[in-house]
């Protein structure tokens, strides 16, 4: 997704005023802010997002723990969900899952995927938008914005940097523009 398409997708849940829409806003913001895998997102428990410090703790492949910074908008979306929506979704006060379905159970990957499809359609996005699309967009936008490849590798939870390098070819147009602006003979 382009940056404007990602922004448009992230705005879709705000058109609704249901607890599920608040949850979806928080999930979309968190996914795009962190580059987490959808399985990591739906596995989050209460306490895994530190709103004050702006970090999310998740467990990736091989149960490897990592801390990922998140921006203020994502932290605020999670805070609003926790304060305004999660209490009405939680039927069991002991439930530890961060994101709940209307029955009060942990939202599944499939449940989130279905909601994402609805929001992509609502945003009139032509592309086939999947949860991995947001992870892909996160990596591409971070690298295009100048983030160091090793930092992006760490945030994505890739064991090998060659896995992260897949996203670098997508920024070739950005490199071309930078080259044309910078090289004395290209001006």
UniProtKB/TrEMBL annotation:
UniProt xrefs under Gene3D superfamilies = Intergrase catalytic core
> Has UniProt tagged this entry with the keyword Ribosomal protein?
no
**What are the GO MF terms of this UniProt record?**
DNA binding
**Which of UniProt's keywords are assigned here?**
DNA recombination
Note the InterPro entries from the entry: DNA_brk_join_enz, Integrase-like_cat_sf, Integrase_catalytic, Tyrosine_recombinase_XerCD
- Provide the GO biological process annotations: DNA integration; DNA recombination
Q: What's one Pfam family here?
A: Phage_integrase
Question: Which positions fall inside the Tyr recombinase domain?
Answer: 1-180
Question: What protein name does the entry list?
Answer: Tyr recombinase domain-containing protein
Q: Which organism is it from?
A: marine sediment metagenome
